[in-house]
Amino acid sequence: MLPFLQSGPIGIRKESKDCIEENRQLGNPSTSVAEQVPVCPEPSEDWSKDQVKKSEKQEAACRHSRTSSITSNGSCASAGESPEKGKKGLIGILKSALKKKKDSKPLSENKFPDAAQHLIVLEKSLSIKSEEELKTSQQDIESVYEILKSKVFDILKDSVLLAAAKPDLLQQAVDALKEQEKEDQNHLSESLPDQNMQSRPRKWKEVWMATVKESVETRMKDTCRTPTTENLSTAGQNLLHMGRTMKEDLTVVVQLIKQLYPPEFNVCSTYAELYHNYFASQLKKTAESQLEDKDIYLLLSWVHNIYPNDIRKDRVLAKELEKVKLGSLLPSSLIKELEKKYLGSEEATVKNCLSRCLETEIQRWKKDQEPEKLDGHFHSELAILAIQLAAGKRTWSPGTELLILVSSSNPPFSYKDAFEDFKEKNKKQRFYKPILIANINNCRNFRDYAEKNIAEKDDDKVSILSTLSDIENSGFDVLLQQLFAQLKPIYKKFTENKWDSSDEIMNEIIKTTRKYISDFQTLNDPFYKAIIEKIHVHLVKEYIVRLLKRRVSLKSPAQQQNLAQNISKNAAALEAFCTNHGSQATWLNSALPKLAEIIRLQDSGAIKIEVATLATAYPDIRKRHLEAFLYIKANLTRGELKSILSYLADGAVSTPSGAPLFSNINVS
Question: Three-state DSSP class for 378?
């Protein structure tokens, strides 16, 4: 039996939809070649080897005696005809099978590799030919090879279209390609290649590379396949077509075509590089032409956003494309040129829009009206309006427009400067604090936008977040200023009374603080927790300040025990109050109890151990702080005091890490 191949698909060069439809209308793929062409036993490899070994004389004799030849009815003749005639019959069969007549049925699939193998066998038989016979046979074989090559590469050129519609046909074309590549490698590996095999290597793999390139370029140029999008320029429509085609075609390659080839063909990499290179070359031509602002924006969007995120990071393609290292669609120098051109026309528009937003907000502040509430929190629309406006005029960097608004480096558009100006000049307004709170809450929207949309390595992000922190802390300072001023004289009572009635003093501190905290509940949750932590730090710090004032000096252990007990009770009350109101500053909770324990202890060795634990928890404590605190323990000898102080100096002079406590306390 001599199996061949099905002829190539009809309409292969037509528009994709028509091509696929016509391929569906092909004849029954299981049709046997026996219905179309004569058959003959397949030439065996042993037969070819035997002929190579025989002499010309034996071959001549063999021509007269060989009994098998190809007959017109497809059976094997028993006498008279030479194997040369038989082989010409085989060539004829191949030609007939490969050339599809108008009225002939489509050949059976699964035959391309068989045809390739038969041709390889015939090639190898050339080594026994005379010079005249060799020339004739080579011409015959090459003519069939050209037909086979044309059929195979016509199919391979339309791999993307046929991968789903005719996968078996495509597989057979690939198998024929593999057979030829394998034979090329065998030929090149021979120490003394057959001189009659001048057609080797045939380099079908190189032809395949060129065919894939042609296919890619054809599909990327065929813009009519992508529906026209309203309000999109010709340049924009071309970008859309190329990007869509590349993504869809590579998806087919990864899911359906890659598996048909051996790994050494690097199918995904080959297709990806060709699509990328064509896309990049066309994008460069577009970038170097005269473009409107909207097309520059669109082009930069493809370079910075759509191509790297929607195509290269696509869930189907990402793994394969990571191996290829495709790079950017445009050279960095050209990108910068486009950015500069776009910025020149857009920055003024962005600044003007943001300036109008800010001016509207400032006028609202001056009206001294209570801000609106959203979910119980004072609210401002500035951030929302500014972000929406900026998004409508989006540049290549999401941080640019936000930096223009918030940073003081862009007067008169600076939100920070406008906030500071209001804060200083409008303290007598009725709704002064609610407006401050609304603006602190406003920072959260800006901060969330920056965190989500600006890359970590972008310098704008650091500048924006730093500016927002300045605005927030500036607002906190004003909101807490009055509370801290009221607490100061209350704290003085500890030293004035030498910690007598310390429980009453602490209750007064808590009562005063609670009254202010109720006003801060209109802050958004993150800011409410932040201001409660600031209050917690202040309450603990001010208590420590009183202990370091050198106003109390106790000689008897009993007096020290009593003071330690009062400090512990005050510390517990303070911790409970702050924790109940949402403070998460648990790092503060051990400060006062540890100081109380140092006062209670009488053994200098035990005191040293407690000092070490204190220094571990609060590495910003210094010798001057400890010396002022130990003034309370009047029964320590000068030698003991010196020993304790030197112990701290040796073990706790490293640079503090974490939140500061003692470093904010000045000791006179």
Answer: strand
Cα(first)–Cα(last) distance of the chain, in Å? 109
Q: What's the rounded Cα separation, in Å, for the pair 208 and 153? A: 7
In whole angstroms, give the CA distance from residue 111 to residue 5: 3
pLDDT at 114 over 70: no
| Residue-wise DSSP of 502-513 | HHHHHHHHHHHH
Residue 47 confidence (pLDDT): 32
- Residue 592 in contact with residue 573, Cβ under 8 Å? no
Max distance between CA atoms of the chain, in angstroms, equals 136
Q: Which two tokens stand for residue 601?
A: 């202890």
d(CA 502, CA 493): 8
What does the alpha-carbon distance between residue 634 and residue 599 come to, in Å, rounded to a whole number? 10
Buried b (16+ CB within 10 A) or exposed e, 138-147: bebbeebbeb
Lookup: tokens for 392? 């409508």
pLDDT at residue 488 above 90? yes
Asked if the model's pLDDT at residue 115 lies above 60, the reply is yes
- Write out the DSSP string of 396-424: SSHHHHHHHHH-TTSTTS-HHHHHHHHHH
> Is the model's pLDDT at 195 over the cut of 90?
no
| 94 or 288, higher pLDDT | 288
Q: For residue 603, report the phi and psi dihedrals to the nearest 5 degrees.
A: -85, 125
What does the alpha-carbon distance between residue 8 and residue 142 come to, in Å, rounded to a whole number?
Answer: 19
CA quadruple 192, 195, 197, 199: dihedral positive or negative?
positive
pLDDT at 51: 34
Q: What does the block give as tokens for 558?
A: 């009993």
Distance CA 577, CA 593 (A): 16
- Answer for the pair 211, 157: CB distance below 8 angstroms, yes or no: yes
Contact status, residue 300 vs residue 396, Cβ threshold 8 Å: yes
CA 142 – CA 125 distance, rounded (Å): 14
> Quick one: which H or E segment has residue 373?
strand 373-374
